Amino acid sequence: MKSTPNLTSYGWRASQLHQALSILAKKAGLLSRLSETLSAYHGPADDHIIDQWMVATTEQMGIESEAVEIAYGELEQRIQQIGPALIRLPSDATPLFLAVLKGGETGIKVITPNNKVQLLDPNHLRDVLASDLEAPIAPTIATLLSEANVPDERQAATQTAILREQLGSMPIGGCWLLRLSPGDDFLKHMRYARLPRQLLIILGANFIGQLLILLEWWLVGRGALDGHFEWAWMSAWALLLFTAIPVQLLSVWTENLFSLNLGSLFKQRLLYGILQLEPNEIRHQGSGQFLGQVMEAASLESLALGGGLMTVIAILELFIAIGVLAFGAGGIFHALLLLGWLALSGWLCWYYYLHSNEWVTFYREMTNDLVERMVGHRTRLAQEAPDHWHDDEDQFLERYLHYSEGVDRFNIIIKAIVGRGWLIVGLLGVFYTFITAPAASAALAISLGGIFLASQALSHFVTGLSSFISVMITWKQVAPLFHAATRGQKRSSSQFILPSQIKKKSALLSTRDLSFRYHANAEPVLQACQLEIQQGDRLLLEGPSGGGKSTLSALLAGLLVPESGELLYWGITQQRLGIKTWRKKIVTAPQFHENHVFTETFLFNLLMGRRWPPLQEDLMEAEALCEELGLGDLLERMPAGFQQMVGESGWQLSHGERSRLYIARAILQQADLIILDESFAALDPENLKRALECVLRRASTLLVIAHP
Predict the structure, then answer these.
(1) In contact, 364 and 474? CB cutoff 8 Å
(2) Cα separation of 25 and 59, whole Å?
(3) CB-CB contact of 601 with 644 (8 Å)
(4) Is 289 contained in some domain?
(5) To 5 degrees, how large is the angle CA 67–CA 68–CA 72?
(6) Do the strands 673-677 and 702-706 form a parallel or antiparallel pair, or are they unpaired?
(7) Based on the domain organization, do 607 and 553 belong to the same domain?
(8) Whose CA is closest to 7, among 70, 100, 78?
(9) Which has more confidence, 477 or 295?
(10) Bridge partners, residue 498, by sequence
(11) Which residues of 495-589 form beta strands (DSSP E)?
(12) Nearest-CA neighbor of 633 among 697, 592, 690, 698?
């Protein structure tokens, strides 16, 4: 059995974690300066507690940390890609942590406690992290290989293969990745991803490419005007031609890399923004509007990247063309003529934007109507008169075609006029100059070259600007999601609280003068509400429809923000504890119409609040809970059992089965308080009794909301 290398000299003690975090974030470029006010960690050597401290501390620093588990079979590959990250080293003594700056195949850059960056062999780190998993079975495997007379030179490779087969899916924890918050300044994300440097490379490569093209044409034009070609000049022309190839390859490769990185940042930002939206913000929207936003987001990325880069490059080409024209026969007059034509092109594009905006607005309305009709197709078949199934469709299509024809006609006119129209205007300018003040043939050739270069640049400019106009229109739909990501940055940071610091003398959950209204001018749904829930309580909250029961449930679970008043968990305010931690401590199963079954497996819908992928103990607990809730027959009926795809919104499940799925999902999150809002309303008496007994047995503290 191979010996495990000693990495003690590289490790940071738990009490030094705040220093390691600050230095690591600074050297990785996540922070502009060191954080001096971080509190040291004095808690137990428990990954779960350390994770809570990491979340609170990194929020205070303005960045994020994420606890990850690495599968044994992927360990070697993942540690070569990891960083910046903190990794806990396996140890029975004082826990030590490795501050990884950047991974790599040849060496991993780590920051030592003396603030030096050193290279660490990836294989050494891999052996250390895997030692606890390998130790129990490695001697047995070595003995087996010896008894099987496996040659010594093959034993190491064979042992590695067996270990990978036996332990491949086993997780290795104790790793925390550091990163910028997705809601942080987007320009900061771009700088961290080095996108400005890539953009400069793109512009520089295109500028050099344009200069090479001008030099090529200058050499050809020189020979044509002289009436003969010299071999030296022909060789220079060929050299320039071949030099342009790697420059163009560099430009194309960097453009693709820039598009990939920027698109990744944009998608991350939108997803994070969606998760920051409040439920009330999207309740008034239909399925068609959701689909429209998704389609707009996808098109925005491609249009912005393609059209934006093309527009920038076209502007660069236009500046070069203006410079060429200024040196030609027309001089400054010719350059000003191009600027005037460019202004006319911009005005035409603005007019095109106004028409396109009308067309896109109507297109969104038609898409929303179509999707709503598809989603509600079963209801329409059952309850709507057949004579009205196709109402308004002809009017929709007629208006859509009218708008489409107008936009397409104007788009064709712009593309035809701007590029080709400039050729006529530019040649007229040369003709006027040639009549009034005949110039040398070289100056005339320069002007002609500038005219054709400007024509090509204008064509690119119009194409790119058309895409940019679509981006401006699309941005109206996507901007709320993009800006919603900043909400997380504006919230106050949570504080790290050790379990030993929670004095369980007060109520588990209490409210003080809690008030809430859905709109500023609406009547309060709750006003000066006082409530205390003690640990171990089993409470039933009854009341008429519209009385505020579900609103109170959402407030207690942290899904809504109260207008005034306080929420306290063991006497600790929600602001101090942090909304993320609060939602882990208090879990609700909303009403049936507020809950959702995702188009995934039955197991995924059960374990949404747990780690994923699940471990064997997670599967065993989920199976036992399903049996207690009476879902065992359902699992037996489904061909794939837990892995059965349950369809969109769980259409393959009955009303009662979905209700019990929601109950199981809440219980499996192992919260201190479980709130069930009308969760038993759809159950028959037999299943109601089974589900209620299960909930009372498994929930430590319970609040059930029901109608009288």
Answers:
(1) no
(2) 13
(3) yes
(4) no
(5) 150
(6) parallel
(7) yes
(8) 100
(9) 477
(10) none
(11) 509-516, 526-533, 538-542, 564-569, 572-573, 586-589
(12) 690
Which of these three, 157, 182, 207, is where a domain ends?
182
pLDDT reported for residue 488: 66
Would you give the DSSP letter of residue 119? E
Q: Which of 535, 538, 539, 536 lies closest to 503 in space, CA to CA?
A: 535
pLDDT class of 97 with cuts at 50, 70, 90: very high
Residues contacting 271, CB < 8 A, separation 6+ = 182
Contact status, residue 481 vs residue 317, Cβ threshold 8 Å: no
Kindly report the CATH number assigned to the domain that includes residue 104.
3.90.70.10
- Residue 599 resides in a domain: yes
- Residue 1: predicted pLDDT: 46
Look up the pTM and report it. 0.76
Looking at residue 260, its amino acid is L
In terms of domains, do 31 and 178 share one? Answer: yes
Q: Are 668 and 607 in contact (CB under 8 A)?
A: yes
Point out the least confidently predicted range of 13-17, 306-310, 572-576: 306-310
Strand order in the sheet with 564-569: 526-533, 509-516, 564-569, 572-573
Mean confidence (pLDDT) of the chain: 83
Same-domain check for residues 335 and 363: yes
Q: Any idea which of 144-153, 417-426, 522-531, 666-675 has the lowest mean pLDDT?
A: 417-426
Q: How far apart are CA 201 and CA 616, in angstroms?
A: 50
Residues 185 and 492: their CA atoms lie apart, in Å, by 17
Does residue 512 sit in helix, strand or coil? strand
Q: Is the peptide bond before 84 cis (omega within 30 degrees of 0)?
A: yes
Q: How far apart are CA 706 and CA 708, in angstroms?
A: 7
Looking up residue 683, the CATH number of its domain turns out to be: 3.40.50.300
d(CA 71, CA 173): 9
CATH code for the domain in which residue 433 is found: 1.20.1560.10
Six-digit token pair at 44? 């137990």
682-689, Cβ contacts within 8 angstroms, sequence gap of 24 or more: 682/592, 682/655, 682/656, 682/658, 683/656, 683/659, 684/656, 686/630, 687/629, 687/630, 687/656, 687/660
Q: Are residues 366 and 472 in the same domain?
A: yes
613 preceded by a cis bond (ω within 30 of 0): yes
Q: What angle do CA 443, 445, 446 make, to 5 degrees?
A: 65
Shared-domain flag, residues 476 and 534: no
- The per-residue pLDDT for range 196-242, each reduced to its tens digit, is 999 899 888 888 888 888 777 777 766 666 666 677 777 877 888 88
Answer yes or no: are the C-beta atoms of 577 and 494 closer than 8 Å.
yes
Residues 427, 348, single domain; the answer is: yes
Q: Are residues 469 and 519 in the same domain?
A: no
**Tokens read off for 144:** 């087996």
Q: Is 340 left (phi over 0), alpha (psi -120 to 50) or beta?
A: alpha
Q: Assess if residue 285 is contained within a domain.
A: no
Full domain range(s) for residue 677: 502-706
The residues, any chain, with a CB within 8 Å of residue 525's CB and separated by 6 or more, are 516, 517, 518, 548, 551
Q: What 3-state DSSP class applies to 485? A: coil
Let me know whether 255 and 200 are in one domain: yes
